[in-house]
Amino acid sequence: MGRKDRTVGDRLGMKLDNKKIFQTLNPNKVWVPVIIGLAIVFGMFYFDPSVNANSLKVIMDASIGWIIMAAVFILVRDAGYVYRIRAITGGQLTWVRAIYVIILWEFASAVTPSVVGGTAVAMFILNKEGIKLGRAIAFVMVTAILDNLFFVIGAPIILFFAQGNIFPSSKVLESQMQNSLEAIFWISYGLYASYSLVMALALFYRPRIFKWVLIKIFSIRFLRKWKHDADEYGNQIIEASKELKGKNWQWWLPLILATIFIWSSRYFMLNALISAFVPLSLEQNVIVFARQVIMWIVMMISPTPGSSGTAEFFFAQFFTQFLEGYTFITSILWRLLSYYPYLILGAVFLPRWIKQVFFKKKNKKTNPDVRKS
Predict the structure, then answer these.
(1) Is 244 in contact with 297 (CB distance < 8 Å)?
(2) What is the percent of the chain with per-residue pLDDT over 70, rounded to a whole number?
(3) Considering only 2-6, 272-276, 314-318, which range has the smallest mean pLDDT?
């Protein structure tokens, strides 16, 4: 890397390594989504006449085998994440360090709005794990593009296999609400498809042209205050493009397959959870899986941390048709398995990671003769 590139990397490092990252990676932030989630639960108790004390008692009807299967799907999904981050870094991260990265990445995503995500934090974490900033930026952007493409490409396929049963029927929702859900979905889908296309072109075609266009856009008077951020983002794209140049199909194929595996495991978890209360036919399993893809695209524009509140609301809209009296307890179990563990794990692992990455490395620099016992 030349002198000019090092200057860009250093400037990017200063941009990422600041107090805003630690404001996101703050264990105290777990209380925000927890409070929102509890507020939704109590609100359902208060405003929904179908939800009462008996709604919690029905957990005794659950099949333990299917509950265990749901937990297994969560574990293999996380294993897929760990494998993917190791594969994308060429094995530079050990299995233990990859686990730390994924837990903290999931924690950052859980305490930030879905529309924001934890990408900047992920770049910071990978950089502090010893991965050069340009590579860290490239790796995070690749995972974001792959995840988005799963939805962008997968949604039309799912729509085909679901045979028009992708949205809840008007028997479950009022016609106006159903139309609103469809509108939100297509708006979200359009935004993510456009973003994925633009990012792919920027990374793999003309990154410098992308930066030039970005700066021109943010040179407009009412956007000028974000021009510096646009310049930094353009630099990130250029750095990432350099790192990804020349990657062959042997590098890409495992990442694509891992992405499909990760998201399929995430969705099969809910299929298993619903099956714990009600039997599902093959056709119903396809519809449940399909509706999750649609629901997640809608949830991606949620303004709340980790889609708290939004997730619980849409869950009831999409799956009451199958669960009926089991909807409330299933929604709670769904969030307990797929969301809240990452808040807890993040709060536990974060202090240990900070100690390992910052203090141990600092001690090694000040005491180079110190050896591991």
Answers:
(1) no
(2) 82
(3) 2-6
Question: How many residues would you count in the chain?
Answer: 373
What are 305's strand-pairing partners?
Answer: 113
- 153, containing H or E segment: helix 133-162
With tokens 């106006």, the residue in question is: 176
Half-sphere exposure (Cβ direction) of 286: Cα atoms closer than 13 Å:
12
- Per-residue pLDDT at 370 exceeds 50: no
What distance in Å separates the CA atoms of residue 316 and residue 164, rounded to the nearest whole number? 19
> Rounded to an integer, what distance in angstroms lies between the CA atom of residue 45 and that of residue 39?
10
Residue 177, SS3?
helix
Residue 305, SS3?
A: strand
CA distance linking residue 211 with residue 150, whole number of Å: 26
Rounded to whole angstroms, the Cα distance separating 37 from 40 reads: 5
Single out the residue of 148, 137, 120 nearest to residue 238, CA to CA. 137
Beta bridge partners of 113: 305
Q: Is 332 helix (H, G, I), strand (E, B) or coil?
A: helix
Q: What is the largest CA-CA distance in the chain?
A: 72
Residues whose CB is less than 8 angstroms from the CB of residue 189 and which lie 6 or more positions away in sequence, other chains included: 151, 152, 155, 297
Angle of helix 310-323 relative to helix 327-338, nearest 10 degrees, comes to: 130
CA distance 224 to 218: 5
d(CA 170, CA 21): 44
Measured CA distances, 246 to 134, 210, 249, 313 (Å): 15, 20, 10, 45
